[in-house]
Amino acid sequence: MSESASPLVTPTETPAVGPRTRVARAGALALRLAERKVILFLADMAAVAAALLLVLHVRFQAPLSWTTVMRERGWFLLLGGLWVAVASLLDTYDLRRASRITSGVSTAMAAAVGTAAAYLLIPYITPPLHQSRLTAVLFVGAMLGLVAVGRAAYAALLVQPTFRHRVLIVGAGQAGQALVDAIRAHAGVEYEVVGFVDDAAGHGQSAVHGVPVLGTTHDLVQVAERYGVAEVVLAATHPDGRSPSLVHALIDCRERGIHVSEMPAIYERLTGRVPIAHVGSNVPMVLAAGHDSHRLYAVVKRITDLVMGLAGLAALVLVLPVVAVLIRLDSPGPVFYRQVRLGRGGRPFVLRKFRTMRVDAEDDGPQWAALDDPRVTRIGRWLRRLHLDELPQALNLLRGEMSCVGPRPERPEFVAALARQVPFYRARHAVRPGVTGWAQVNYPYGSSLEDALVKLEYDLYYIRHCSAALDATILLRTIGVVVSLRGR
Question: What is the DSSP track for 379-434?
Fold first, then answer.
């Protein structure tokens, strides 16, 4: 089944199995996205550890047992850490890729090669596998083979209907349809939408948005049991407008072991975005702070910014002579580009970059930058691809005006217009802007109001969930973007 199609169950007669038994089976076998990622991670860690254990057995006659792992646990822990870093850099745990044998196996094998190569290049604190070419080849080959087998098994077995997470959506309106689209786009194999229950659509329509309408909210418990639903998702009305009968039905579902969730929470989990158009007046959900409000995290993040700022400043000093000459030879004008942006709390600051556009680029006033922008110079295009144009922002990091990770700072002219048209746009000023961010690693370059809305949804997700782990993931994925020359 393609990932773009959501498996749907038509309202036909079900097998003669007791409803409570069927729900219990669904709850026992259905896998959520987080559970799938845990299974993938454990399988990968077992594969890389088994590869090292096998080579240690062949090379040093070490026993194939847990005793060897514990005795040489430093070797195994380092290998596992390298795997986590390389796998994150290559976005190996994207379930859309993992659900297909070809893409899942190829991505994991690329991570295996990178991990094995890095491990073999580390001296002294790793086993001397590199001293023998045959041993090194055996190590790489064993890791490739075992990781590939594990990924192929996942793609062949865990995408079967038995393990799909069956969902019933309450409400067939725009929010419910948006959730269906999100499931089809991001978890078409892992999730199964069995249908809608909706008081309005339930009386006259057999399907909405390609999904069957199975009844009204009065039928919620019976429908959930009949179709072995693992989760009921509310995408209907504002909480204050929910009828007592619906609330009681939801409680009945929960008592029967069926999980009950709100549409925005599921949408976030699937897409990594906050569904601005469907949160209504639920302002606390949008503005709830993540770990950014924790003092320890804030201190660690500031120290990281200072370290990265100093490293960036050193790199800037090294490349400045060459880059300055290339910029001046390619296009007349200054080497550096300064522009006012808005930072935390909406405070303006001067952003510094290497100039990548012609000096007359905005003679007609501020303009959205665009993909393949004709105003970009030849050298500027390469600077952008390599992200070298961002190096002068090391000064902004040291001054505390920016952070390594956060929403990209926007120009005051655009903020004023976007704040009037896009709900919650000012909320992105709750944290320091970043050199890179969650929107930058998840969404292609944008130059329109619609793009600004999608990027804001990613930014709000980051603000709600910011943590050291998420920052590390964004930095690793940014390295992947730089290495692949995907700069805009």
Answer: HHHHHHHTTGGGGGGHHHHHTTS-EEESPPP--HHHHHHHHHHSTTGGGGGGS--E
pLDDT tens for 364-410 read: 666 666 666 778 889 988 998 888 999 999 999 999 999 999 999 99
CB–CB of 109/83 below 8 Å?
no
Q: Are 269 and 33 in contact (CB under 8 A)?
A: yes
For 403, the token pair is 């952070």
Nearest to 202 by CA among 256, 257, 263, 246: 246
| Tokens describing residue 189 | 């194999």
Angle between helices 449-465 and 412-421 (to 10 degrees): 90
Contact status, residue 180 vs residue 211, Cβ threshold 8 Å:
yes
Q: What domains can be seen in the chain, in order of their start residue?
A: 19-31+160-271 (3.40.50.720), 33-157 (no CATH), 291-483 (no CATH)
369, exposed or middle or buried, with CB in 10 Å at 0-12, 13-18, 19+?
Answer: middle
Indicate whether 12 pLDDT > 80.
no
Cα(338)–Cα(336) distance, integer angstroms? 7
Which residues in 395-429 are b (16+ Cβ under 10 Å) and which e? bbbbeebbbbbbbbbbbeebbeebeeebebbebbb
Pairwise CA distance, residues 46 & 291, whole Å: 31
The amino acid sitting at 390 is: E
Tell me the mean pLDDT in the region 405-432: 88
Task: Tell me if the pTM is above 0.85.
Answer: no
- CB-based burial label for 78 (10 Å; 0-12, 13-18, 19+): middle
At 443 the three-state DSSP class reads coil
Closest CA to 190 of 151, 164, 154: 164
Query: Which structure tokens are listed for 49?
Result: 């550890």
Q: Please, are residues 220 and 194 in contact by the beta-carbon 8 Å criterion?
A: no
Q: What angle do CA 434, 435, 441 make, to 5 degrees?
A: 90
Query: Which token pair is 231?
Result: 């989760």
| pLDDT, tens digit, 9 for 90 and up, residues 208-265 | 889 999 998 889 999 999 999 999 999 865 555 568 888 899 999 999 989 999 998 8
